[in-house]
């Protein structure tokens, strides 16, 4: 399936970006200098055609019912500025794919535990080599498919952050290490979080598993404090008993 997006005027194309509306989920980005990057859901299924210098059209393979919707194409040009177009992907004849992305098995790069009601910061730091052009932060709640919650990228040398989630705040560092700050953690915040780094060396990913514990749950610090208090109290009682026996036998 081809989603056509050809800018009608001539000029210099600086970037093409595709998003799925109304959620504005990032789909694909083309940059003449940095290359292309894709959201995880569309990776290896989308290709930029580039038949002409001002062509931002894409080809989508293995289309399913999950791909139905409106796609927004934005072509950034110089000197005339942006040109946009919306493309509708219609219903399909094939039945929906019954397999769920939520069944994907994976080993987390790191594990983190947060108590319900507290604040938590999830950091997707990665020891990447080369230059990072874009980071896509995704979340997969337990038993559900991946969803994009934020993007950090460099556009014309400027740091740009895009927040697509309704939970937490996305933080972007100059090195494009991304973070998600959650205020008042709830049970639904638990699950896998993944950062996909688009670099000169290719696509690199790191995954964090967040587990939300109930309030007032087990705390090693409090447990050790109780042990120390108990040991101190026992020692004090033993000392009092020894002194009492010594005084009695005088």
Automatic annotation (TrEMBL):
Compartment(s) where it occurs, according to its Swiss-Prot or TrEMBL record: Cell junction, Adherens junction; Cell membrane
Keywords associated with the record: Cell adhesion, Cell junction, Cell membrane, Disulfide bond, Glycoprotein, Membrane, Repeat, Signal, Transmembrane, Transmembrane helix
GO biological process: cell adhesion; positive regulation of immunoglobulin mediated immune response; positive regulation of natural killer cell cytokine production
GO cellular component term of the entry, any: adherens junction
Primary residence: other
Function: Cell adhesion molecule that promotes cell-cell contacts and plays important roles in the development of the nervous system. Acts by forming homophilic or heterophilic trans-dimers.
Subunit composition and interactions: Cis- and trans-homodimer. Can form trans-heterodimers.
Protein name as it appears in the record: CD226 molecule
Source organism: Gasterosteus aculeatus aculeatus
Shown residues in whole-protein numbering: 109 to 358 of 431
């Amino acid at each position: 399936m081809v989603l056509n997006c050809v800018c009608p005027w001539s000029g210099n194309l600086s970037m093409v970006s595709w998003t799925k509306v109304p959620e504005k989920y990032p789909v694909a980005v083309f940059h003449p200098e940095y290359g292309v990057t894709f959201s995880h859901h569309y990776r290896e299924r989308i290709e930029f055609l580039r038949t002409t210098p001002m062509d931002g059209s894409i080809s989508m393979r293995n289309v399913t019912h999950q791909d139905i919707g409106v796609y927004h194409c934005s072509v950034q040009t110089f000197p005339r500025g942006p040109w946009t177009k919306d493309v509708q992907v219609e219903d399909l004849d094939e039945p929906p794919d019954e397999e769920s992305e939520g069944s994907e098995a994976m080993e987390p790069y790191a594990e983190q535990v947060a108590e319900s009601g507290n604040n938590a910061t999830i950091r997707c730091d990665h020891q990447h080599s080369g230059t990072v052009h874009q980071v896509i932060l995704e979340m997969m709640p337990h038993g559900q498919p991946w969803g994009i919650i934020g993007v950090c990228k460099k556009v014309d040398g400027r740091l740009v952050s895009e927040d697509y989630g309704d939970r937490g705040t996305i933080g972007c560092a100059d090195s494009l290490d991304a973070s998600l700050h959650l205020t008042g953690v709830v049970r639904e915040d638990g699950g896998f979080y993944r950062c996909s780094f688009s670099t000169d060396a290719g696509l690199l990913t790191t995954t964090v598993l967040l587990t939300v514990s109930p309030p007032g749950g087990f705390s090693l610090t409090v447990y050790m404090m109780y042990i120390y208090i108990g040991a101190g109290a026992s020692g004090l009682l033993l000392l009092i008993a020894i002194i009492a026996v010594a005084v009695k036998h005088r």
